[in-house]
C-alpha cells in the first residue's frame, strides 16, 4: 500500500538518498521508491520544487553531468551544510517517531 | 534567496532529461520505446504544472504577470473601441471635473505663498474684547513706533516686515494728464529681505528708506507691471513716477513671480511706509484720540500696519511672548480712560503661520469651493458607477471564457488581477484625458469668470494637482473594477458553461444598485444646481433701490491732488455742472463713498427717543453726499425733504435715514422726522427725510439702518463722482473722466470709470460661478445616469431576448413587453429618485449660506427636479423597451 509522504519529509529523504553519492532527479525518485519498498511514490511535481528549495538553501548543489547510460542529466550532491542538516533532521525525526511510538503503544497483533 | 537564479530553459532541460532517463529504465524493464515514453510521461505527472510552479517560485513573476496583463488588457480594449471610448470619456469627465475643482481649491485655500521658505513666516495678531474705539474682536494692525519696538525685541538675525494692505494709489503713468489706480503697498525697509525677494533691476528697499518722515520718495515696481507698462525698459531706474500727485523715483524692479503677500490682490508698486503722510494714505487704521492729520509713521496712536516675521519655528513662542509684552505696555500707555483700559488690556497678542499669506478669496470662497468639491465627488461617483456598470455587463458576457479558463486551472485571484488591470488601464487613459480636460477647464474658468475677481494668477496643473489626479484615478479604478471582477468570476463553473442566460440575469441584478445610486446622486446634484440657480435668479431680479443700470462712477481724490478744504464747495459745484453739460449725462453728484461696495457702519449711535436693550450696540451705515444725490442715483425719498445747497458748515446738522432705520428705531416713517441722531462726532443731526431702502453695498446684503449726511456740512473730501447717463454707460463715463482730467487735473479723476450695474454684478460673481458650475455638474451627472440606465436596460433586454420571445410566442402582446421592460427600468429609477430626494433634503441644508431667497428644503425644487429626472429616465427606458417589444419570437427562440 502506498502512503502519501508527510509534509516536510521529502526534503529529509532526498538528503538521505544523496548521502550515498550524487544522483539525478529521476534516480532520487527511484531510490526513494525502491528503498521504501514501493510505499512512497515520489510525485515529480513535488520533487523538483523540493530540489530547488534545497539548492536555494545551499544544502545541495547541482551540476550537469552524464548518466551511466550516457544521457545528460543534472546531478545533485550534498554540501557540507547539507550533511549537517541531514544529521540534525535525522535526529529530530527519530525523536519524533520514538515519541509518537510511545504514545501509540506496542503494535497490536 | 533572491540572488539565486536559474533560467526557465535550464529547468525545462532537466525535466526533459529526467523523462528520458525514466523512459530508458522502462525500456530496460522490457517495454517498447513507445510504451516506455508514455509510461514515463504518466509517471511524471503534469510537467507543465511543475514548470509553472518553478516559474512562480521566482520572486519577480508578478512583474511578468503585470506585463502580460497590461498587454492582454490593451488588446481587449482595442478590440472593443465603442466600449473603451464611452468608458474613457466618462472617466475623463469625472476625473477632469474633480481635478479642475481641486486645482481651484488648492490655488485659493491650500497653496503656500510663492516666497522663500513660506513656512517660517508668522503673522502677528491680537484678539479680545472690543474697546471704545470699536476694535474688531480680532485685529492685526499696529503703529509704526510699536513695530519698531517689536523689531528691537527680536532675536539677532530675525527680521520683521510691516506693511499696509494693498491699496489703489493714483499713479500717472504716461506724459498725458490723467492717472490710473494702481494696486500699491506701503512697506517697511526690511519687507523684501524678510520675504526673500531679490531685485531684477536696480535695488529693493532697505532700512535706509525709512529714516525720515516723507523723506524717501522711492518706488519699486513689480516685475510683470514693469513688463506690461514699461515694455521691460532696462533704463527705467531713476525715472520719475508721480504717485498721488507726489514725485517719486523708480529705484528697482522686483523678482519675477513675486506679487506681494495677498494671494488674490497682486501689488504692482511698493513704496516706503514713511511716505504715508505725503501720499495722503488714510485707510484701514485704528486711531486712539488723535487727529489723523499728523504723519502716521511717527504716531504711536495710529495702528495701520500688518506685521510678519520670519523665524525658526522653535523660536516662534519666545518671540510671541516678547512681542506680547511690548504690545501690552503700549496699550497701557495709550488708553487713558481707566474704565476702558481694563477691557482693552484683556486683549492678547498671538502669532500664527503666515505660509499661505493673506487672502480675501479664501474667506469668501472657502464654502463655495468645498461645496463644489462635494459636487464633483458625487459626479465622480456617478461616473464610477457608470464604468462599473459597463464592465459588469462586459465581463458577465465573458463569463463563459472565464469559466473555461478557471476549469483549465487558472487561479481566480489571477483572473481577477487581470480584470482589475483592465480597469486600471481604463483609469489611466481616463486620467490623462481628465488632466487635459482639467487644464482646459481651469484655464477657461480663470479666464472668464474669475479673472475679473483677480483670482490667483497661478491655477496651474502642478505636481500637487497631478498627484491628486493620480490618486483619484487609481482609487477610482479599484472602486469600479474590484466588485465586478469579483462577481463575474464567481459562481458555479458548470452553469456558466452550460448557459449564458443565468449569468445575464445575475448581472442585471448587480447593476440595479449601481443605477439606483446614479439616479440618487443625480437628484442631489440637480437639486443643488436648481437651488443655487434660483438664488441667482432671485439676486438678479432684486431691485437694489437705485438706477444701477444708468449710473457710472468716477473715482476722484482731490485731497491727494492738493485741493484745500475751503475750495471744495466751488470745486464740487463746478465739476457737477460741467459733467451735466456733457452729452448723454442726465445728472451728476459727488459723495464720499460710492454705490455697490465700501459703505461701512459705525457703532455706539445714540438716537432720540430710542432706548437700547442693555448691551445693544446701535450701528448705522453712513455716507456723506451732495445735495442732488438722491435725484442723481434714483433713490426715492418717501418722507421729508432732500438736502439742499444751504445744508453747509455752520448750519444745523441734518440727516436723512432709510426706511429700515425709521421703522426699527422710531416706530415709523413719519415718526422719524425731526428726531435727532448722535453718531459720536461734535454735532448731532436732525432727521429731515426718509429714503427708501437700498442695497448700497451688494445685492446679497439686506438693507440695514443707514443715514446720509450733507457732504458740505462735514467738509469731507468726496471720493466718488456719480453720473446718471443714457446710452453706453462706460463710454460716457470715460468721456467725462477725460474731460475732467483736462480741466481739473487736481481732482485726480482715476481711470477706469465703473458702471454700477457691473459692480453689482461682480458682487454676485460667486453666485454665478456656483450656479453655472453646479448646473454643469448636475447636467453631466444626469447624462451619465441616463447612459447607465440605458446600458443596464439594453443589456437586460439583450439577455432576456429568448425569454421575451417565449412570452410573445405564448401570447404576450408588444404592449405587455413594453410595459414589462419600461416597468423594470422605472422601478429602479423611482427607488433612486426617492433615495436622492431624501439625500437632497439632508445635504442641501448644508449649503444654506450659499442660497438667497430660497430654502434648502424648497418644496418646488424638490418636486420639480425628481419629476424632470423621472421624465428623462422614462424617455431613456423607452428605447430599449421598444426594442424589446419588436422582438420577433421566432428569431429569438431560434437563437438559443
- Sheet with the most strands: spatial strand order of chain A: 1-3-2
Q: Based on DSSP secondary structure assignment, what is the total number of beta strands of chain A?
A: 3
Secondary-structure content class of chain B = alpha+beta
Count of DSSP strands of chain B: 27
Key traits:
heterodimer; A: 109 residues; alpha+beta; three-stranded antiparallel sheet; globular; B: 896 residues; eight-stranded mixed sheet; elongated
Short description:
The complex is a heterodimer of chains A (109) and B (896). Chain A has helices at 9-19, 25-35, 44-57, 80-104; strands spanning 23-24, 60-66, 72-78. The longest helix of chain A has 25 residues, at 80-104.
How are the SSEs placed, and which strands pair?
The complex is a heterodimer of chains A (109) and B (896).
Chain A: H1 9-19, E1 23-24, H2 25-35, H3 44-57, E2 60-66, E3 72-78, H4 80-104
Antiparallel strand pairs in A: 1-3, 2-3
Chain B: H1 8-28, H2 33-44, H3 47-57, H4 61-79, H5 81-110, E1 121-127, E2 138-139, H6 144-153, E3 159-163, E4 167-171, E5 179-187, H7 191-195, E6 199-202, E7 218-221, H8 223-230, E8 240-243, E9 246-254, E10 269-272, H9 276-279, E11 286-287, E12 302-303, E13 306-310, H10 316-334, H11 338-344, E14 348-353, H12 360-397, H13 399-407, H14 412-450, H15 463-488, H16 493-498, H17 501-541, E15 551-555, H18 568-581, E16 585-591, E17 601-602, E18 606-607, E19 620-625, H19 629-633, E20 637-640, E21 654-658, H20 659-666, H21 669-672, E22 676-678, E23 685-691, E24 706-710, H22 711-714, E25 720-725, H23 729-743, E26 750-751, E27 754-755, H24 756-763, H25 765-799, H26 801-809, H27 814-844, H28 859-885, H29 889-895
Parallel strand pairs in B: 5-10, 5-26, 7-9, 19-24, 21-23
Antiparallel strand pairs in B: 1-2, 1-13, 1-14, 3-13, 4-5, 6-9, 7-10, 8-9, 11-12, 15-25, 15-27, 16-25, 17-19, 18-22, 20-23, 21-24, 22-23
Amino acid at each position: 500500500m502506498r502512503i502519501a509522504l508527510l509534509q516536510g519529509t521529502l526534503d529529509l529523504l532526498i538528503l538521505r538518498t544523496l548521502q550515498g553519492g550524487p544522483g539525478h532527479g529521476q534516480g532520487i525518485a527511484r531510490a526513494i521508491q525502491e528503498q521504501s519498498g514501493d510505499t512512497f511514490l515520489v510525485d515529480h511535481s513535488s520533487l523538483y520544487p523540493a530540489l530547488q528549495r534545497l539548492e536555494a538553501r545551499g544544502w545541495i548543489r547541482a551540476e550537469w553531468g552524464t548518466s551511466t547510460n550516457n544521457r545528460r542529466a543534472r546531478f545533485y550532491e550534498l554540501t557540507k551544510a547539507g550533511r549537517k542538516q541531514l544529521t540534525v533532521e535525522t535526529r529530530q525525526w527519530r525523536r519524533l517517531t520514538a515519541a509518537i511510538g510511545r504514545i501509540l503503544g506496542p503494535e497490536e497483533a | 534567496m533572491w540572488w539565486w537564479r536559474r533560467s526557465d530553459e535550464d529547468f525545462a532541460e532537466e525535466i526533459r532529461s529526467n523523462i528520458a532517463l525514466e523512459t530508458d529504465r522502462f525500456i530496460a524493464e522490457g517495454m517498447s520505446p513507445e510504451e516506455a515514453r508514455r509510461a514515463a510521461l504518466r509517471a511524471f505527472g503534469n510537467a507543465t504544472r511543475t514548470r509553472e510552479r518553478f516559474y512562480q517560485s521566482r520572486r519577480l513573476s508578478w512583474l511578468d504577470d503585470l506585463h502580460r496583463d497590461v498587454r492582454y488588457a490593451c488588446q481587449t480594449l482595442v478590440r472593443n473601441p465603442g466600449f473603451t471610448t464611452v468608458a474613457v470619456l466618462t472617466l475623463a469627465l469625472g476625473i477632469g471635473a474633480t481635478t479642475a475643482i481641486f486645482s481651484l481649491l488648492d490655488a485659493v485655500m491650500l497653496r503656500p505663498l510663492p516666497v522663500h521658505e513660506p513656512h517660517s513666516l508668522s503673522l502677528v495678531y491680537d484678539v479680545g474684547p472690543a474697546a471704545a474705539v470699536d476694535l474688531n474682536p480680532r485685529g492685526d494692525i499696529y503703529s509704526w513706533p510699536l513695530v519698531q519696538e517689536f523689531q528691537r525685541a527680536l532675536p539677532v538675525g530675525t527680521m520683521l516686515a510691516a506693511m499696509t494692505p494693498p491699496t489703489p494709489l493714483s499713479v500717472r503713468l504716461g506724459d498725458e494728464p490723467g492717472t490710473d489706480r494702481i494696486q500699491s503697498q506701503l512697506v517697511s525697509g526690511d519687507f523684501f529681505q524678510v520675504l526673500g525677494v531679490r531685485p531684477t533691476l536696480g535695488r529693493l528697499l532697505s532700512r535706509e528708506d525709512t529714516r525720515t518722515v516723507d523723506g524717501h520718495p522711492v518706488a519699486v515696481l513689480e516685475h510683470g507691471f514693469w513688463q506690461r507698462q514699461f515694455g521691460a525698459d532696462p533704463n527705467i531706474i531713476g525715472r520719475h513716477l508721480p504717485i498721488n500727485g507726489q514725485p517719486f523715483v523708480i529705484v528697482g524692479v522686483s523678482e519675477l513671480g513675486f506679487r506681494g503677500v495677498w494671494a488674490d490682490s497682486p501689488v504692482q508698486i511698493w513704496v516706503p511706509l514713511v511716505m504715508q503722510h505725503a501720499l495722503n494714505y488714510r485707510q484701514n487704521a485704528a486711531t486712539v484720540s488723535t487727529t489723523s492729520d499728523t504723519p502716521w509713521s511717527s504716531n504711536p496712536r495710529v495702528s495701520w500696519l500688518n506685521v510678519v516675521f520670519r523665524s525658526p519655528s522653535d523660536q516662534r513662542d519666545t518671540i510671541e511672548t516678547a512681542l506680547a509684552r511690548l504690545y501690552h505696555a503700549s496699550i497701557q500707555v495709550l488708553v487713558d480712560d481707566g474704565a476702558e483700559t481694563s477691557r482693552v488690556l484683556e486683549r492678547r497678542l498671538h502669532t500664527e503661520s503666515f505660509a499661505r499669506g493673506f487672502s480675501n478669496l479664501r474667506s469668501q470662497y472657502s464654502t463655495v469651493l468645498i461645496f463644489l468639491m462635494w459636487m464633483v465627488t458625487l459626479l465622480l461617483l456617478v461616473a464610477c458607477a457608470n464604468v462599473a456598470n459597463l464592465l459588469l455587463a462586459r465581463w458577465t458576457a465573458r463569463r463563459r471564457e472565464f469559466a473555461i479558463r478557471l476549469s483549465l486551472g487558472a487561479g481566480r485571484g489571477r483572473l481577477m488581477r487581470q480584470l482589475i488591470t483592465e480597469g486600471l488601464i481604463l483609469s489611466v487613459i481616463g486620467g490623462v484625458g481628465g488632466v487635459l480636460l482639467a487644464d482646459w477647464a481651469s484655464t477657461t474658468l480663470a479666464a472668464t469668470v474669475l479673472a475679473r475677481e483677480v483670482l490667483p494668477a497661478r491655477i496651474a496643473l502642478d505636481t500637487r494637482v497631478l498627484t491628486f489626479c493620480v490618486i483619484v484615478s487609481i482609487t477610482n479604478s479599484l472602486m469600479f473594477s474590484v466588485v465586478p471582477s469579483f462577481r463575474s468570476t464567481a459562481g458555479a463553473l458548470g452553469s456558466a458553461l452550460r448557459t449564458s442566460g443565468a449569468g445575464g440575469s445575475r448581472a442585471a441584478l448587480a447593476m440595479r444598485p449601481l443605477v439606483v445610486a446614479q439616479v440618487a446622486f443625480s437628484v442631489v446634484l440637480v437639486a443643488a444646481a436648481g437651488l443655487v440657480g434660483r438664488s441667482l435668479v432671485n439676486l438678479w431680479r432684486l431691485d437694489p433701490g437705485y438706477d444701477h443700470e444708468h449710473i457710472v462712477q468716477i473715482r476722484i481724490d482731490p485731497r491727494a491732488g492738493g485741493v484745500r478744504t475751503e475750495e471744495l464747495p466751488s470745486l464740487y459745484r463746478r465739476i457737477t455742472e460741467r459733467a451735466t453739460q456733457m452729452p448723454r449725462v442726465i445728472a451728476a453728484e459727488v459723495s464720499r463713498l460710492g454705490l455697490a461696495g465700501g459703505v461701512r457702519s459705525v457703532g455706539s449711535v445714540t438716537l432720540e427717543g430710542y432706548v437700547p436693550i442693555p448691551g445693544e450696540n446701535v450701528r448705522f451705515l453712513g455716507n456723506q453726499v451732495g445735495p442732488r444725490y438722491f435725484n442723481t442715483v434714483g433713490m426715492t425719498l418717501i418722507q421729508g425733504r432732500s438736502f439742499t445747497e444751504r445744508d453747509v458748515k455752520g448750519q444745523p446738522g441734518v440727516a436723512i435715514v432709510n426706511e429700515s432705520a425709521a421703522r426699527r428705531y422710531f416706530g415709523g416713517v413719519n415718526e422719524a422726522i425731526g428726531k435727532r441722531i448722535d453718531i459720536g462726532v461734535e454735532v448731532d443731526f436732525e432727521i429731515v427725510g426718509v429714503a427708501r431702502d437700498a442695497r448700497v453695498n451688494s445685492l446679497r446684503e439686506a438693507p440695514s439702518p443707514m443715514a446720509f449726511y450733507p457732504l458740505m456740512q462735514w467738509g469731507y473730501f468726496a471720493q466718488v463722482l456719480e453720473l446718471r447717463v443714457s446710452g453706453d454707460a462706460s463710454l460716457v463715463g470715460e468721456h467725462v473722466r477725460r474731460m475732467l482730467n483736462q480741466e481739473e487735473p487736481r481732482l485726480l479723476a482715476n481711470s477706469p470709470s465703473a458702471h454700477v450695474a457691473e459692480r453689482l454684478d461682480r458682487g454676485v460673481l460667486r453666485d454665478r460661478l456656483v450656479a453655472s458650475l453646479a448646473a454643469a455638474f448636475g447636467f453631466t451627472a444626469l447624462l451619465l445616469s441616463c447612459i447607465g440606465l440605458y446600458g443596464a436596460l439594453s443589456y437586460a433586454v439583450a439577455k432576456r431576448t429568448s425569454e421575451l420571445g417565449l412570452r410573445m410566442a405564448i401570447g404576450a402582446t408588444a404592449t405587455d413587453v413594453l410595459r414589462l421592460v419600461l416597468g423594470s427600468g422605472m422601478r429602479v429609477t423611482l427607488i433612486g429618485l426617492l433615495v436622492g430626494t431624501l439625500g437632497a433634503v439632508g445635504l442641501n441644508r448644508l449649503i444654506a449660506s450659499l442660497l438667497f431667497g430660497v430654502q434648502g428644503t424648497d418644496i418646488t425644487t424638490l418636486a420639480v427636479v425628481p419629476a424632470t429626472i423621472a421624465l428623462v429616465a422614462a424617455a431613456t427606458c423607452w428605447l430599449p423597451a421598444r426594442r424589446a417589444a419588436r422582438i420577433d419570437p421566432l428569431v429569438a427562440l431560434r437563437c438559443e
